[in-house]
Automatic annotation (TrEMBL):
Residues 1-99 form the KilA-N domain. InterPro entries: KilA/APSES_HTH (IPR018004), KilA_N (IPR017880), Phage_P22_antirepressor_C (IPR018876). This is P22AR C-terminal domain. Pfam families: KilA-N, P22_AR_C.
Length: 214
């Protein structure tokens, strides 16, 4: 929470609440405008109840000790200032508005996250084909492990856990690799007479793994 300054005086804060005693002193320290008098008003009690109804448990509280006094939430602080005088109400209201504007400015000048690094590589056609075939073998393995897992589970095999992991824990990796390979092979056509026949499986890939890739 950022600091609140009224008429060049820093207002003490406690758990998102502001010191009404500090405001009282800044406003002129009139006995008639003591926070205790304000707290007893029916309008103040009604405002506290309305704020509590929205989920704020303690919109106003009294503390003892060296940092003691009455502390209140922003809405009650503004109401307290308005009760003291229209002029003081305007001062406090503008202080909160300035506080909000400063927070917005600070958030606007936060450095943007750096763009992801990009790299450029040169691949031969044979290397691109090998990448797609490696992906195809990986996806085919996922389908195979998913197919045999129920059998090993039913047998109570100690391999069932490993088979489950191979069949179900790497699907996101296969999906991400598929998107990359689709992008870098978009200029190639499926040719059943060459190693580009693997593109049939790449283009027809089902990310949900409901449709076999082989």
């Amino acid at each position: 929470m950022s600091n609140l300054t009224i008429l060049n005086t820093a207002i003490r804060q406690h758990e998102n609440l502001f010191s009404l005693n500090d405001l009282h002193q800044v406003s002129g320290n009139s006995k008639n405008h003591q926070p205790s008098n304000f707290s007893r008003l029916e309008t103040t009690q009604a405002l506290v109840s309305a704020i509590q109804a929205e989920g704020t448990a303690n919109p106003i509280k009294t503390l003892r000790g060296t940092q003691g006094g009455t502390y209140a939430c922003k809405e009650i602080v503004i109401a307290y200032a308005a009760w003291i005088s229209p002029q003081f109400h305007l001062v406090v209201l503008r202080a909160f508005l300035n506080q909000l504007e400063n927070l917005q400015k600070n958030s606007e000048i936060q450095p943007l996250a750096p763009p992801p690094k990009k790299y450029t590589f040169d691949f031969t056609e044979d290397e691109l084909q090998s990448l797609v075939w490696a992906w195809f073998a990986f996806v085919r393995g996922i389908h195979t492990f998913r197919y045999i897992y129920p059998m090993f589970q039913k047998l109570g095999s100690n391999m069932a856990g490993t088979i489950y992991g191979q069949g179900f824990e790497y699907s996101h990796t296969a999906q991400s690799a598929h998107k990359i390979l689709e992008r870098i092979t978009k200029d190639f056509d499926c040719d059943p007479m060459t190693n580009w026949r693997v593109l049939k499986h790449l283009r027809g890939f089902d990310p949900s793994f409901k449709k076999p890739t082989f």
